[in-house]
Amino acid sequence: MSAYLLVYAGLLVVWTYKLTRFLIPSPHPAPVHGGRDLGGEPAVEAAAAGTAPGSVALFYLAGGVQGFGRNYAETGGCPANDVTTPDACLTDNQRDFFRAVRYLRDSTPPATVVISTKEAVLGLYTGRPELHGQALHPRYGEPFLDGLRREGDAIFVLTTLHLWHVPDEMVAQCNQFELVRAYANGTDLVRLKPAGAPGPDACPVIQYHAGRFIPPLK
What we know:
Layout: H1 2-13, H2 42-75, H3 92-107, E1 113-116, H4 119-126, E2 130-132, H5 136-140, H6 144-151, E3 154-159, H7 168-172, E4 177-182, E5 187-192, H8 203-211
Parallel strand pairs: 1-2, 1-3
Antiparallel strand pairs: 3-5, 4-5
């Protein structure tokens, strides 16, 4: 167990995973007898108990070394904690998401509220106040569009990086929203239009993201 924890700590120090990969602990190996009846022979049981953990450990080690080498070759120069991560280290939708992050950081007033299911990441990288998409009604009341309009500027970050049940009220009144920025690979920024303002609405974008959500089975 102590060796497992040391290796796991080492992975935290030398990060070799792509941004789409999370650290998922492997269950630490336990003695395995292969499901066969060893007939109660003490010598056979002792031999199996001694060799099985070693075999499992070698299996994990071989796979880990292979995966480490491959991941390091692909992402060794890719920081996993910086909004300036090179484009080559990102998938297409990650690349567009970070472009949206840079836009929010560099081109919006400091008081702009960023609303998303990725609110923690956005708050960290943009320095803007953030709100989780499911906290709209507690924050702004019912209906939330009225409260949102009273309290000032807010931008919704709709992205294919994460599924979100876009509120029914937002879908039903999509003509009250305007598109701020659209990116080719699944990230869009929308906000409320000023009351009575003419111009194109964000209905196609909002309906697209709303349509991606599949309610869980009951």
